Amino acid sequence: MHIIAHRGFRSRYPEMSQVAFEKALELPIHGVECDVRLSSDGELMCFHDPTLLRIFKDSRRVSTVTAAELRELGVLSFDELLNMVLDYNNRHLYIESKHPMRFGRMLEEQIVLKLRYRKLVDDPRMHYISFSATGVRRIARMAPNMHTVRLLRDWEPWGRAEGLSLEHAKAHPEKITDNTYLYTVNEPEDIRWAERRGIAMLATDVPDVALSQQTNQ
C-alpha cells in the first residue's frame, strides 16, 4: 500500500508549508499530495482553499493575488515543491487541481506546460488527481501517459472513479479495485482496514502513523 502525505505532514506542521513537505519527504513513504491553484499572474501555487481566509485570515481569493504576494505569505510555488520532490529519487507527487475556478482549463494547461518544461510530463512519479471529471479529461488529452485519478465526492452518484473517500469505500467495498486511491485516512484501525482491503494508494494526514500500522513493509 502506497502511503501519500496529504498536503504534506499536516498533522504536525502547517499544511502545504515548506516544512510540512520537507518532513513528509524525509519519511520512507511513497509520496506527497498537493493542491494547486493559479495566482492572478498565472503562476502555479500550492494552496487548497479558494481564499486565504482559513490559513491567513485574509479574505482575498487566491486567484486575485500575485505569486510574489503569495510567496511573501509563505505559500510555496509548484516549482519550489517540484524541486523538493526531485531531491529524492523515489518520491511521487500527486497534483490535485482545484475547481471550479475562474481560470478554467488554464490550470491543467499550466500543469502540463510546467511538467513538460521540466521533462516530467511522462515521468511515472507525477500523478494528476481531481474531483473534476473535465480536468481529468483535459489531462488525458494533453498528457496521455500521465497517471490520473478521478476523485469521487460522497454525494455524487456512482460513476467511473478511482479515488474514494474512506466513508464511500466502507459503504461500497465492492467498488475497491487494484488501483483505488483512498482519502483521507487517519485512524490506525482505518489504516489497517485499508491495507486488508488491498488499497493501492492511501492519502493520510498522519504518514508516520500509517507507516507504523503497515504489516507489509
Structure write-up:
- With 217 residues, this protein is an alpha/beta fold.
- It has a single domain (2-162), classed as TIM Barrel.
- Helix content is 34%, strand content 19%.
- The chain has nine helices and nine strands.
- It has helices spanning 18-26, 53-56, 67-73, 78-86, 106-117, 133-142, 166-171, 188-196, 207-213, and strands at residues 2-6, 31-38, 44-46, 92-97, 126-130, 147-150, 163-165, 181-183, 201-204.
- Strands 1, 2, 3, 4, 5, 6, 7, 8 and 9 form a nine-stranded mixed beta sheet that branches.
- The longest helix has 12 residues, at 106-117.
- The termini are close together.
- The relative contact order is 0.15.
Q: Which helices and strands occur, and which strands form pairs?
A:
Elements: E1 2-6, H1 18-26, E2 31-38, E3 44-46, H2 53-56, H3 67-73, H4 78-86, E4 92-97, H5 106-117, E5 126-130, H6 133-142, E6 147-150, E7 163-165, H7 166-171, E8 181-183, H8 188-196, E9 201-204, H9 207-213
Parallel strand pairs: 1-2, 1-9, 2-4, 4-5, 5-6, 7-8, 8-9
Antiparallel strand pairs: 2-3
Structural class: alpha/beta
**Fourth-tier CATH superfamily name:** Phosphatidylinositol (PI) phosphodiesterase
Element-level helix/strand string:
EHEEHHHEHEHEEHEHEH
Characterize the main sheet.
Answer: 9 strands, mixed
The CATH class is Alpha Beta
Enter the CATH topology name: TIM Barrel
- Name the shape in a single word: globular
